[in-house]
Amino acid sequence: MPNFFKLKTITEMNILIIHNRYQFAGGEDAVVQAEAELLKSYGHDVSVLEVDNDSIIGVWGKAKAAFSAIYSFSSRNLVSNAIAQHNIEVVHIHNFFPLLSPSIYDACRDAVVPVVQTLHNYRLGCPKAMLFREGRVCEDCIGKALPLPGVIHGCYRGSRVESAVVASMLAVHRFRQTWQERVDGYIALTQFQKDKLVQAGLPSEKIYIKPNFVFTPDTIAKTSYDGDYALFVGRLSEEKGVATLIDAYKQGSLSIPLKIVGDGPLNDVLQQQVQTLGLENMITFLGQQNKSVVLNLMRNAQFLVFPSIWYEGFPLTIAEAFACGLPVIAAKLGSMAEIVENGVTGLHFEAGNSVDLAAKIRWTTTHAEAMIAMRKYAHSMYQTRYTPEANYHLLIEIYQQVINKNMSKLASISFSKSSLQSIHSN
User: Fold this and answer.
1) Quick one: average pLDDT of 22-51?
2) β-strands 132-133, 136-137: how paired?
3) Does 222 map to a domain?
4) Are 345 and 327 in contact (CB under 8 A)?
5) Rounded to an integer, what distance in angstroms lies between the CA atom of residue 98 and that of residue 21?
6) Is the pLDDT of residue 12 over 50?
7) Number of domains in the chain
8) Structural domain contains residue 17
9) 203 lies in some domain
10) 316-323 and 368-385 are packed helices; what angle lies between their axes, rounded to 10 degrees?
């Protein structure tokens, strides 16, 4: 058998990372950058191919993006050229929507290069990518060949036309078996997310679980119990559940002040609500802050509140909290319930239930020793699961497996062809 088909132990690789950036940078963009830096730090040759949604301007731009979302020949050629130019051994796709399209999988297949795709959200089972509609969890499109409910409700950007484009993309590539045949390995961020996407039709045997990680070189976890405030860090939008958190303070008898870090479409509404309730002395809005300020706030807080009312993917904020030795009070819902262990690294409360959340906040103020233990466990969880080193070894093992499977498949094809040629020659 030629050396080309021998299974290999990976040391240094040529890796192509592909990502369609969002108009408003978020956690996913940060993960892409962090993984690229991590791989480079271990000596791999990493090429990053990114496109930006800022190029979608005007009616013509939107129309072009709509066609590109389903299949883009120019993106296919772009990826083909990048693979050839950099002698790529594995392609890691983070987001192809909307400008790149699933056509890029075909480019990888033509070049006989294995593909790994990180599932940052629920896009392959939901036009909105969130499994969330009208203030509640929604699974109406899960497993459907044509996600028609998402079109009827205009789930993508509130537009039935744009939702129809996304639904068409999902339906076309489900029919083509793109998700089943053209991706060698998926990365789900939690077991919960994997289970949901298997329900959506992705092949379970191809889905690996690898959480996100955070670089926190200057973090020194605090195990003392001297925090005098609760902390929320995140986007001020409906799905993040900030309204539930403010309503918990409305219940009364909460003695610990709350600091809210972040910005978003509900910023003015939430601040007005706090003023109307007369809670300005208890709840402070700090706006958007840089990473060093956020980490310092985490190191000195008593706990982080994470009240999201959607499933979430893998919130970097929780991993950052653990790195700082900060327990998390999280909604018992989706990935959050899996990442935060109740009574160990934080507390659970019923999602959307402000009375239950208020009760859990009160509990923290009367259980100092338990909170100290949770700080230690939270930091231990970070060291075990969410460091760059731990994440690198998980990622490289996934690359190893998909490359070796791809080579085994090529070897099998080569052997079959040789056998046929031998039979014909005889």
Assistant:
1) 91
2) antiparallel
3) no
4) yes
5) 10
6) yes
7) 2
8) yes
9) yes
10) 110
- Longest CA–CA span in the chain (Å) reads 92
Query: Over the stretch 137-180, which tens digit does the pLDDT of each residue have?
Result: 999 999 999 999 999 999 999 999 999 999 999 999 999 999 99
Q: What angle do CA 402, 404, 407 make, to 5 degrees?
A: 110
Q: State residue 325 phi and psi, 5-degree precision.
A: 70, 35
| Same domain as 138, residue 10 | yes
Going along 69-155, which residue ranges are E strands? 90-95, 115-118, 132-133, 136-137
DSSP-derived secondary structure letter, 360: H
Has this prediction a pTM greater than 0.70? yes
360-407 pLDDT, tens digit per residue, is 999 999 999 999 999 999 999 999 999 999 999 999 999 999 999 988
225-257, pLDDT tens digit by residue?
557 899 999 999 999 999 999 999 998 789 999
- Burial class from Cβ neighbours inside 10 Å (0-12, 13-18, 19+) for residue 425 reads exposed
On whether the CB atoms of residues 261 and 294 are closer than 8 A, the answer is: yes
* Strand 14-21 to 207-209 pairing: unpaired
* Residue 310 belongs to domain spanning: 230-385
Tokens of 258: 């709350």
Asked if 143 contacts 200 with a C-beta cutoff of 8 angstroms, the reply is yes
